[in-house]
Every structure is written in C-alpha cells, then in structure tokens.
UniProtKB/TrEMBL annotation:
The keyword rRNA-binding does not apply. One of its GO terms (cellular component) is cytoplasm. This is Alpha-1,4 glucan phosphorylase. It comes from Aliikangiella marina. CDD domains: GT35_Glycogen_Phosphorylase. Keywords: Carbohydrate metabolism, Glycogen metabolism, Glycosyltransferase, Pyridoxal phosphate, Transferase. Its EC number is 2.4.1.1. Its cofactor is pyridoxal 5'-phosphate. It is an enzyme of class 2 (transferase). Phosphorylase is an important allosteric enzyme in carbohydrate metabolism. Enzymes from different sources differ in their regulatory mechanisms and in their natural substrates. However, all known phosphorylases share catalytic and structural properties. Allosteric enzyme that catalyzes the rate-limiting step in glycogen catabolism, the phosphorolytic cleavage of glycogen to produce glucose-1-phosphate, and plays a central role in maintaining cellular and organismal glucose homeostasis. One of its GO terms (biological process) is glycogen catabolic process.
Amino acid sequence: MTSKSRKNITVKAFKARIQHHLNFHAVDLSHSIDKKAILMAVCSSVNEIVFDKLQSTNIRRHERNSRSINYLSLEYLMGRMLSNNLHNLQLFKTAQAATKELGFEIEDIFEEGHDLALGNGGLGRLAACYLDSLATLDYNAMGYGIHYEHGLFEQQFYNNRQIESPDEWREYGNPWEVCRPEAEQEIPLYGHVETVAETDGTLRKVWHPGQIIKGVPWDVPIVGYNCETVNVLRLWESRASSHFDWEAFNAGDYQDANSAQTQAETISKVLYPNDSTAAGKELRFIQQYFFCACSIKDIIRRYLKHHDDWSQFADKFVIQLNDTHPTIAILELMRLLLDEYRFSWDNAWQMCKQVFAYTNHTLLPEALEKWSVELFETILPRHLEILYRINEEFLNGQVDKMWPGDTAMRRKLSLIEEGQQKMVRMAHLSVITSFKVNGVAEIHSELVKQDLFPEFHKLYPNKLTNVTNGITPRRWLKACNPALSDLISKKVKGDWAKNLSLLSTLTDYAEDKKFQQQFMQVKRENKVKLSEEIKKLTGVSVNPDAIFDVQIKRLHEYKRQHLNLLHILALYRRLLENPRLDINPRVFIFGAKAAPGYYLAKEIIYAINCVAEKINNDARINDKLKVVFLPNYRVSLAEKIIPAADVSEQISTAGKEASGTGNMKLALNGAVTIGTLDGANIEIAEEVGDDNIFIFGKTVDEIKALNRQGYDPVSIYNSEPELKSIIDWLDSDYFTPGKFGELSAITQSLLNDGDHYKVLADFVSYSQAQEALDKAYKDQAGWAKMAIMNTAMMGKFTSDRSIEDYANNIWSLDKNLPATQAVKLASGE
C-alpha cells in the first residue's frame, strides 16, 4: 500500500476496519464497548498498514542489498505509539473521525495505551528519536535492545517520598510487537575454556559453557513519517533453553521444577537492576552480555542469509554502540569470528575495527562503565582471554610507539585498571576498537578530546568527532502539540515536520501582533489542559495565567534540581517579607524519577515535595507561587507538559551535561530557556540569539578555575545573607513540623560535602537571571516574540539532521528509497 493509497483510506473504510477488529477485542458488541477494546481494534487496524509497509521495505532492502546500520542501545524510551504512528502514516484525522463516529474521542483512546518505558531518560529517548529519523529518511536500520518485562519503575509519592512499583507496560499485551521465534539465539554463560590441538599443529580455544540462555526476539515496527519505510526495533527476551524439569515436578519438587525458567527470565525482567550488591552486579553484567550476544549473532545470521563468504561484511554492516552498555559486543564478535568462523586474529581484529562506532554520552567518571576482571573470569572466561590479548597488543604496539618506556601512560591507557580489584575499562575498549567516536554536542565533543580522552585523541587524531543530538519534530511538535502545529502550517509552506529548517519562516511573524496573539492563545490553551492534569494528579489548583516554569529530566545532582529549589525558597521568603512584591505569579513544575539506590536524589524529591506542600497551602502569598512535582514522569506526561511550558530550566553545572534533548523539545514548543553554557544550550543560544534566552552561571573554564583554586562553598554561604537564610531554613523544621533536620541531606551536600556541582557558586547569577526573566514576561508582546523565535530557530535540532550527520560522516549509508523516488532523486527532482 503506497502513501497515496493510504491517503485515500476514507473515514468509512477505516471505521469498517475498526469494527472488524472489534470482533476479536470486544466481549459483547451489543453492549457498550470498553475503551481498551477500541484501543486494541484501532491499533490492529493501523497494524494492517504498518506490516504491509514493513514487508515492502524488506523486499526493497533485499533487492538493493544496501548497507545497514545496527543501533545497539540498552534503553529505548518509546512512549505511546498510536498517536505517533497515525501522524507518521498521515491517518490521524481519518482515525479521529472514524472513532468519533463510533462514539469515542481519539485522545481518550490514546490515554488507554501504555508507555513503552524501556529506558531511563535522555539516552533512551534519543535512541527512540533516532529510530524515527532513520525510518523517515529511508535508511536501512535495525535497532537492538532488551524486551524488559518491567520498564522503568512507576513512581508514586507517599508522605512526600518516592515509592517505586513495577511498570506493567505489557500486562495485557502490546499491540505493536510481534514475536519472531525463527530468529531466536542461544547464549552461553559461565563454564571454562579448553585449549585444543588441531591435526595441523595449531591450537584453538573451545569454550565449554556452564549454562545456555535462549534469546527470543520481539519486533516493534518503526514507522517513518510520510514515506514508504518501516524499520524494526528488535528486543530480546531471555528464556531458559530447557525450562521445565518434569522429573522434579513428578517427584513433588514443584518449586525447583521451574527454577531454570525463573533464573533465565530474570535477565530481561527489569531495566537496570540495582547493582549495589554482588548479585545485582552479576545480573546487570549478564544482562548486557545477553543483549549484545543475541544482537551480534542476529547480525551475522542476517548477513550469511544473503552472502556466501565474509568479504562484504564490513561493507554491509555498521554497528553503533550507544554509550558503553553494548561494549561487550566487540568481544563477542571477536569470539565468534575466532572460535566459530575460524578467522585469524589479525583478520578478526581488522573486521571489528571496521564495523564498530561508539557514541560517548558523558564526562562523569562514574558513568564510564567498569566491570571487574573477576566477573569476566566467572561469566565470560573466553572473552577475558580475548580482552587481554587486545590490551597487550595495544600497549606493546600503539602506546609504546607513541610513548616509549612510559609506564605511567601504559597504566593510564590500559584496558585493565589496576587496584585492589582489577577492573575492565569499557570506554577504553570502545575507543580503541571503534573507527569513529562521537560526542553529542559541540562543547561536549571538545571536552571529550581535551579532558576525557586527550591521550586517545593524540593517538587517533581523526577518530573523535561530534554529532549534536536532535529530536523528532513528529512526536515533539506535530503529535504532542496539534494546535501549534496547525497554526504553524498556516504560515509555513512545505512539510516542516520533515524539513524543520522551514520553521525559520516564522521569524517574519515574530513581531506580528495578530500572530503573537494566536501563538500565545495556543500556549494558554495548553496551559489550561495541563492545569487540569495537575489538579487530577496532585489535587493542586494552579493559575494558567501564571508563568509555567518547567524542569523535567532525570533527578541527578549535576542537573541541579536543588538549585531550582533554592530559588523557589528565595522567592517564597521574599513574598513572606513583602506579600505585595511585584512579581508575576509563577508555577514551578517538576517531573523526575530518582534511581532507587540514589539517596541524595530521593532526598531532593522529598525536599521539593515538602516545600511544595507548605507553599501551596500558605494563604499569605496570595497564590503568587505554586510548586508541583508531577508523579511518574514519562514520555506521555512530557507530551502534556512541554506544550504548556513558558520557561525551560536547563541549569546543569557547565561541563556536566553532554547535550540534553529536553532543552530542544521545550524550545521547539515555544518555551524560553534559562540555562548555563552547557551541552546543547550553547548551540541553542547561537541559533535563537542572546535576546531570546537567559544564560547564567560559570563557564566550563571558570568551573575548572574554581576547582584549581580550591572551591569553598561555606565562604559563599557566609557572604550571601539571602542564601544563608534559605539554607538554614532547610535545616529547621519549618517544612517538616516537629522533624528538625529532616531536609539536611541537601545542606550537608552543599556545605559539608563540598558542593561538587557548584550550586552555591551559581546561585546569585541564577537569581539575577530569574529576575530578568520575570521582568521580560511583564512585556507580553516582547515575550511572545521570544517564544516565537525559539520555535522558529530550532531547525538545527531535528534528529533528521543528526542522522544525516551520522549517515554521511560516520556510517556511509545510502537511502533505501522506493524505485520511483530513487529515479526522481537521481534526476535531480
């Protein structure tokens, strides 16, 4: 079915499809139909089209034998898929009308769907955006990940504290996935390695595993926007290779009869199992190897299905490692080439160096993964042997050649970190092997060269590069903000959702009074909707005419939600001292989950909730200040918050945020950024102009200078009376009556533990920028211009541009276009 024939699907025809599928999903068609049944029927109707396109894509791909990008990521934060798929198929209005005739609002049907929350934050959401763009741009791509039974936990608040519960995202099945048992893989673990002498006198290694786990693939189709391509995200579920012991069951040992299955299924049970214990570390290590091994075996299976030898493997497949989580894939490909396919060492190593590329997402040392040698010895003994040889040849070859006799340099660059417990440096292995290593924003990529990997940059001067992150405008504007999308489409000629640079046309209307009014009316309508959602979720009533100030992201010290909290306390204190203080009413909106084992992050959530409870019930401040922490932040909730945001808080410590993508989503929807010169904030400022963003705080170089001089947060605390008063406030029982010091974990981190992320150093600058922002908002015409300029100048930050950068500068991909489009492209049309 072509795009033209899809556009010809009438409301009547689509309604008939839904009614047909209701036969399978509704219990009794003669009575009222359940919303879940209508959801499944609509999804099934859409899938008829999706899987037809998928088959056409596969046929075209096999005919063209085009180069494939294989994206390995431990996280995919996909969100709900129905709305996005309808928009990408150009069927949204058709489906909306068809469901209305059946007595349902399409938005209510969307609410019945579960988020595919198979990720933690920016890493997983970026991967989802990239899959969308790869399909939209007609590239031959396959995503690989884990089919978690439970995604990121559901978050609730009890007595203002975060409580985690399982995320049952597929409790009643997932309409967007299909099992592919024909592609299942067997994955070895544990055991020992034997050296075997061949008849020709050579030696080879044989790994005798102690356990075999089965990897079962589930495919989620990824629909490109307004094109003919559907790619696949393949997610691996772990199962026991022999999962039921009939002998034990018949002997009455019912529990042990199922133990192998239970143990195997644990691998794909939970996203990021708590690794604070030895058992947790082992599970997480196995989880990473399981997904990598399944994926590498599947890539080889796909290649050998169409090729008789290995001569074209590096020409046809490139493997992108999304952070260090998939690094074990390097060792697994080496193992298979050496042991299963009898490659020589040199040929296997050359092959690996030609197919892998690596994206670094962090400058934080604790986020660069290291695994103990002991874990490797126990679980992957053959991989450890391969690792040692890679390390030996690297140190004796490239390192000794560059720094002859330099023992310190050998120690620093070695894949093995010496110490009380020997550790394997996964980032080092990724850099040594990959033909390209990229950071994710211009400043981040420079800091990777200067601070993180300066020696590797000297060794490989052409290897380290940059690809600034991007977001898909299909989900993050067209689908989540339909009113603004419709307004934009009246002014912008062409398909801006596929060519985001077209939004620059809006600069012509930035000072047009009528357009300003229309733009801000859309914003207010979105704020009214969010106000209703806030009331439903928290019971707090907020004023849609107030400034909606939004900070939505993972809870981490470097993202500095507690800096935001200090400013809220300052405003609260000022209002108590002067209730007539001339400031705009402000609603501070937080959304964030803290990792279950991250104590201080959870204490920050607790503090924000305690402060919110006090402020929201204090009549003395005349509703000029409200604070809401929305529970269970996820993609579908972000889709409601982002269109309503006036202010985007991007306040990480300079040099700590690799890029950020929330900053792009918020700006695209007309929010004005207050932020540091960190990550992609710098590039956003370059695009929107200094007059349309509020920059504050110390730069990367100034932060480094503070560290060299010896940073003293206590001296700042003692020299800033307002800051001192609000920190002391946190130490009292004002926000936790009868519980003195209940919020002291924050003050402890800021004063006694050294304020590692320079919250106090940036507080005064942040407060001043907030005052400038408040003043700017009083000029509604001026603010409307700023908001419009932010939307207009986001063209650079589409994930389509990011993927084209990867495709042209790293992956060397050709588009997998249908024949008619390929002819037009070749002729210059």
